[in-house]
Design goal:
The protein has 276 residues and is mainly α. 76% of the residues lie in helices and 0% in strands. α3 packs parallel to α7. The longest helix is centred in the last third of the chain and has 26 residues.
C-alpha cells in the first residue's frame, strides 16, 4: 500500500523538484540543516499537489484505463489520499513558517497555485499560470529563507522553466486528456505548437540563466546555450514526415527534458554565483 501512495504522489517530478530546491539552497549558502528544511518544505508541497492531482483525476484515469494510477486501479483509497494530501499541505505551512512570514507566504503561494492547477485551472486556458508562478516562487523562497533578496533574473528563469515544463509534461498525455475533457493551454494549442512553446520557453530560460548573472557569460553557459540550440531542432526534426508525425511529441518531449536538465544545472550554477 505504501508503494501505491508513493506512485500517487507523482514521485519523479516530486523528487526532482525537491532535490533541485535542496541543491539550490546549498548553492546559495544555506547550512546543511537549513537546506534540508528547505527541501522538506518544497517536498511536502509537491506531495500535497501530486496527491491532490491524482485524487481529482481518479475518475478520468479510470475512464482511460490508467492501470498505472493507484487510485484508478483501486490499490489506495480516496480517503487515505485525501488525508495524506491535507497533512502534507499543513506540513508545508508549518515548515515554511520556521523561516519567517515572508518566505512562508511565498512557499504557500507556490502550494496554493499548484493546488489551483489541479482544480480548476488545469482544464482552462490559464493552465500554464500555476507553473509559471509556482516555479518562480521556488528560487524566491530559497533565497528569502537564507535570508537574502532574490535577483529578478533568477525568479524569471524559474518561471520560464516551469512554464516550459508544463507544455513538455503535457505532450505524452494530450490524447488521453482531450478524451476526458481536459482543455488546458497545451490542449488548445495542439501537440506541435505545444512542443514549440516548450522549446521557446526553455530557450528563453536558458538565455536568462546565461545572461542574467553579473559579468560576462561563462563558458559553461555558452556551451549550454550551444547544446540547447542543437538539441531542440534535433527533437523537432526527429519526428518529421507523415509516417513519423505521431512520434514528434515524444521526440520533442525527450528533447525538452534534456534542455530542462541543462537549465536546472545553469540554475544551480547561477545560485553559486550569488554567493561567490
Amino acid at each position: 500500500m505504501l508503494i501505491g501512495y508513493v506512485r500517487a504522489a507523482h514521485p519523479e517530478p516530486t523528487a526532482v523538484v525537491t532535490a533541485v530546491a535542496g541543491l539550490l539552497a546549498l548553492a546559495v549558502g544555506h547550512r546543511p540543516g537549513s537546506a534540508a528544511l528547505v527541501a522538506a518544505t518544497v517536498g511536502a508541497s509537491q506531495l500535497s499537489i501530486g496527491w491532490g492531482n491524482d485524487l481529482l483525476d481518479a475518475d478520468r484515469d479510470a475512464a482511460v484505463r490508467r492501470t498505472d494510477k493507484p487510485l484508478a486501479a483501486g490499490t489506495v483509497s480516496r480517503r487515505g489520499v485525501t488525508t495524506a494530501a491535507t497533512v502534507a499541505a499543513a506540513a508545508t505551512v508549518l515548515l515554511a513558517l520556521t523561516f519567517g512570514p515572508l518566505p512562508a507566504a511565498v512557499a504557500v503561494t507556490g502550494l496554493g497555485l499548484g493546488l489551483a492547477y489541479n482544480w480548476p485551472l488545469k482544464a482552462t486556458a490559464l493552465s500554464v499560470l500555476p507553473y509559471l508562478v509556482s516555479f518562480a516562487a521556488l528560487p524566491a523562497f530559497v533565497l528569502l529563507a537564507l535570508p537574502a533578496t532574490p535577483p529578478a533574473w533568477l525568479v524569471v528563469a524559474g518561471g520560464l522553466l516551469g512554464a516550459g515544463a508544463h507544455f513538455a509534461n503535457a505532450l505524452p498525455d494530450l490524447a488521453d486528456d482531450v478524451a476526458t475533457g481536459v482543455r488546458g493551454t497545451p490542449h488548445r494549442l495542439g501537440a506541435d505548437r505545444s512542443a514549440l512553446a516548450a522549446a521557446a520557453l526553455l530557450l528563453a530560460a536558458t538565455a536568462v540563466l546565461v545572461l542574467g548573472p553579473p559579468g560576462p557569460p561563462s563558458w559553461v553557459g555558452l556551451a549550454a546555450t550551444a547544446a540547447v540550440l542543437v538539441v531542440l531542432p534535433v527533437g523537432w526534426y526527429a519526428g518529421r514526415g507523415s509516417a513519423a508525425a505521431g512520434r514528434r511529441p515524444v521526440a520533442m518531449f525527450r528533447a525538452v527534458l534534456v534542455v530542462a536538465l541543462l537549465d536546472v544545472a545553469l540554475l544551480l550554477a547561477g545560485g553559486r554565483q550569488l554567493v561567490s
